[in-house]
Hints:
heterodimer, A: mainly alpha, two-stranded antiparallel ribbon, two-stranded antiparallel sheet, 14 helices, 3% strand, B: alpha/beta, Rossmann fold, 3 domains, seven-stranded mixed beta sheet, five-stranded parallel beta sheet, 10 helices, globular
Amino acid sequence: MSRAVALHLGLIAALFAAQFVLPTYHQGNVARIMVLATYAIGYNVLFGYTGLLSLGHAMFFAAGLYGLALPIQHLGWGAGPALLSGVAAGALLALVVGLLALRTIGVAFMIVTLMFSQAFYLSVLLAGTWTRGDEGFVIPAAKQVLFGIDLATPTTRYFAALALFSLALLATLALVRHPFGKTLIAIRENEERARMLGYDTFRHKLGAVVISGAISAGAGAGFALLFGYAGATFASVQYSIFPLLWVLLGGAGTVIGPLIGTLFIFYLIDYASGLTDAYMAVVGVVLVALTLFAPQGIAGELRRRVWKGLP
Amino acid sequence: MTKTPTRRSALKTLAATTAAATTLPMWARYSQAQTSEPIRIGFQVHRTGIGAAYGRWYDRTSQAAVKLINEEGGINGRPVELVAEDDGTDPKRGAEVLEKFANQSNCDIAFGTLFSHVVIGSAPRAGELKLPYFVVSEGHHVASGMLNRYTLQPGITDVKSQVQAMAPFVNQNLGKKVTMIYPDFAFGHDHRDYFSAATEAAGGEIVAKIAIPPTETSFTKYFPQIPRDTEVIYHVMVGPAVLTFVKEMGEFFGPSRPEIFGFIDSLEAVDLASPGLEFLEGTYFWEGNPRYAQADQSEHDKFYRAAVGVDENGASVSDSKDISTYSHMFGCWETLFTIKAGMEAAGYTGPADRAKLIEAVEAMTDMPLSREHPQGAKVFNGKTHQVFGHQYITKVTDGKLILAHTTSIEDTLYPDETDYTTQSF
């Protein structure tokens, strides 16, 4: 077993053990952070490893959210099939968006993904009859049950979030060690050269968009299921910016960066809001400082200074 | 068998007694704590985000109510402390804030949320945390049965009752043929659905429903859709675009306009003297609580207004340009006094009595016009966890909103859609 695999299994083990020692409040927070970090992991596949900056990932997160919540609400589905339909909805949307948006590169790609995401957001509002638009709706507690396990208790929620996070973490670790993932990195570094070497870069990028979209949707579906709410806010533009921030701060192109970034921002906001009403200013200053002094993010700095082989 | 005390056992006993004696002050302090520790009310406040203007006034009103409660001896002899936390008007942060109240800052209850999406996003957590959650949102989400036994709305009426109570007045006094203009999202859809139903029941007719996309910044192209035979326009635009909306509507109609009726939600915290709003002269508004002190102002409104620091024009006493959200913020005041009454009725001593508190509030019915309920008399429905009360219709006269009609409470009632009391704690 390589050091990288050991590191990731160790991280999962540490999160597992943390459940038994964390105070209730932080146990709840870490459960939430793991689900959001799953979203950041999905984002990192596209941004960190493939070098494609999307400003519209909220649509994938929300596709998962509604892909799960709508069948539960209107068709009476159970959590299991609804979870699958959430992931499928995100993957399908990513395939369609990818096919169209990947015809552009760079700034145009950012704008096109942003536009698609806005269109998705407005569609959620327009479909208010079913989605209840901006107001959203509650997923009944009776439906928050998977394989007979009630997911709405603090402990089961924590372990469910950990399972989701671990799955995404190990999947991306496997991905970046697989030739497919290595090709994505090659595309990030120099797409022209990758193409010259005979790789079908469009297909690879499309694959990355679909994988990224599916993981993000898994996070969205998990969020709705575990926390019992679906609303259009999660499709709004700020939820496209969050994963970018988390990944940039944690370290783009590192497997543990998304978790570190999500954890860091969550507690920064939580802590700063207890100190001052102008907590967003504090958060802003910290973000600027980090960008200036650790431009590769926290895990990126670790890789640069401590361990060059950090995946 | 009897045991002879040895030197060792005697020493042990002595040590144990000394230890107990030294910790005695701690125990004493603890039992003291049971009675004089403050009651902590977690206040979920919109300090940032789209709800910030409302949040500022919700904060001022709540602080004023708590100050008064404390001056008069607190609740069950204990002082009250508001633990305010910004939710960014975001449902995700809202749920996190509730967790913080329950598990970190040891709050007895949570209170104060306005925006519906934050309420709906937070309420499931309140139910799981078994934290009584008193919202001041005017959403129909509580009475619809969507939420849970731990969520209550005893201080402000819901949009369904407000809207349906408007229909008889509009149809009888302004006209039978109504065109509705509303934003194309949940809030607007509530108005569309409840008002259409109530208008038909009152013998009126909705001649057009014009939904405005939420991103719209100019409205000129929508006005030609208003049918010529429209007698009344019902509008409920919200957000910064409302000034443009009113101005463009004025330009479209010129001097010959139909009757116009709107919801004050559009103009909460907005000065009626703002340029462009002159066109509203002579039009009517729903108000939850009249912004301008009326000729027949009750002593209770006078007292409440002074306590919060609002002048007779609905602005801050320290800044006449700082307009209050008068139609909504009374809900915070009334909810806090309802919490006080509930805690006193339940003999509330701590989190173990949370269920008793909810049962005590569920048992409430009549809330007469008083200093505690300055907006007007109310009737609380313990089954649906929703309060019902009078609604006010005012007319813009010389740039001020003057009372034209007060609905009865009966006008606002509708059949129960849920019974939370059947849910277990």
